[in-house]
Design goal:
The chain is an alpha/beta fold. The protein has a single domain, classed as P-loop containing nucleotide triphosphate hydrolases (Rossmann fold, 3-Layer(aba) Sandwich), CATH 3.40.50. Strands 2-3-1-4-5 form a five-stranded parallel β-sheet, sandwiched between helices. Helix 2 runs antiparallel to helix 4, helix 4 packs across helix 6 and helix 5 runs antiparallel to helix 6. The chain is globular.
């Protein structure tokens, strides 16, 4: 059986990546592909517990401040479990995996935002993830201001509708997010063959069409 195909979606909260991942999943399934969708942190029993610690704004009230290195280690504990439990089996079964965030997020948020540096993140990736890389990364990078506005508005709706608050990162300063944004730019420049970057504030439908074209080309090339 041919190996599956591993696609990650990256970007700041509010970039539209989760919406586009869902739309791509529906499109690929309609074409007959077997698709696995997941998010990081989360997606496994262990990962969901880690997610509740890392993203809930109430965590630090009960646990105290989470050190940047501890935050990084928890992210990779989640990722290692996801690889073993979901990603590698799906690749072996020839499925298309769509993952909402992966190690690029750790490099951007912990390496850039928390200022731990890229090399520390990449070393952890080699150790915890056996250096498993996506075949393709879709990086949505509209303007920083638009992302922050959407993310904070969305979290307010989430709290009102579901009673859960994943606002721990959204409370950070704009300087924190500027470092993340710049780190994403750095990753895209370093790995142009893997990372397809969409920068503008186009409509959801226009972005969807561009992603479909990119993915169709990559999937076709992977079987030739």
């Amino acid at each position: 059986m041919p190996r599956g195909y591993f696609i990650t979606f990256e970007g700041l909260d509010g970039s539209g990546k989760t919406t586009q991942l869902r739309r791509l999943a529906a499109s690929l399934e309609a074409e007959g592909h077997q698709v696995v969708t997941l998010r990081q942190p989360g997606g496994t029993a262990l990962g969901d517990r880690i997610r509740s610690i890392l993203l809930d704004s109430k965590s630090e009230a009960s646990l105290g401040p989470i050190a940047p290195a501890a935050e990084m280690a928890l992210m990779f504990a989640d990722r290692a479990q996801s690889i073993a439990e979901i990603i590698l089996p799906a690749l072996d079964q020839g499925k298309v995996i769509l993952c909402d965030r992966y190690t690029d997020s750790s490099e951007a948020y912990q390496g850039g935002g928390r200022q731990l540096g890229s090399e520390r993140i990449l070393e952890m990736h080699r150790a915890a993830c056996d250096n498993l890389q996506p075949d393709l990364t879709i990086l949505l990078l509209p303007s920083l201001e638009a992302c922050l506005k959407r993310a904070r508005r969305r979290n307010q709706r989430h709290v009102a509708q579901q009673g859960t608050d994943e606002n721990r990162f959204e409370r950070e300063s704009n300087d924190f997010y500027r470092r993340i944004y710049d780190k994403y730019e750095e990753i895209a420049a370093r790995e142009p063959n893997r990372v397809a970057i969409l920068r503008d504030d186009a409509s959801i439908d226009d972005v969807q069409q561009r992603i479909k074209e990119i993915v169709a080309g990559r999937l076709a090339a992977s079987v030739t």
